[in-house]
Design brief:
The protein is about 0% helix and about 45% strand. The protein is mainly beta. The strands form two sheets. The chain has an eight-stranded antiparallel β-barrel with strand order 3-4-5-6-7-8-9-10. It is globular and about 35 Å long.
């Protein structure tokens, strides 16, 4: 943006979702494998997995979960992906796309150094096997 003769740079903050959602997710804790097409890493900037990179464009809490609009690139294609994630009482991450259940993922590791205390029941499912 220009103001008078000065150019001002405005940086947009990273879109933040609840830290309890951040980490590496797979169909099962044993699925913690970078070659597994069904696993992905969820960060505040987006998701990444095998042959998949998505950048978070919008993120909002809907009370019991998070709705996210992602800009994705996969195997030469680019597209928007709208997902809703919800942490279930059993610690699994439930994913919905276009109003239909898409899958339920098991948590495999946190991105941070400690387990967020806001997630009851998930600490027992923690595994440090993924990075």
């Amino acid at each position: 943006m220009r103001l008078g003769g000065l150019e001002i740079l405005i940086s947009a903050p990273a879109l933040a979702i609840d830290a309890a959602y951040l980490g590496f997710w797979a169909l099962s804790p044993e699925g913690c494998n970078a070659d597994d097409r069904n696993s992905f890493r969820l960060t505040s900037k987006g998701i990444s997995g095998r042959e998949l990179e998505c950048e978070t464009k919008q993120a909002s809490s809907d009370g019991s979960g998070w709705r996210m609009r992602l800009w994705c690139g996969s195997e030469g294609s680019e597209y928007f992906l709208d997902v809703r994630w919800q942490l279930m009482p059993n610690g699994r991450l439930h994913e919905t796309q276009k109003g239909k259940a898409f899958g339920s993922m098991a948590f495999t590791s946190w991105l941070g150094p400690t387990v967020p205390v806001s997630v009851p029941g998930i600490a027992s499912a923690r595994s440090d096997g993924c990075g």
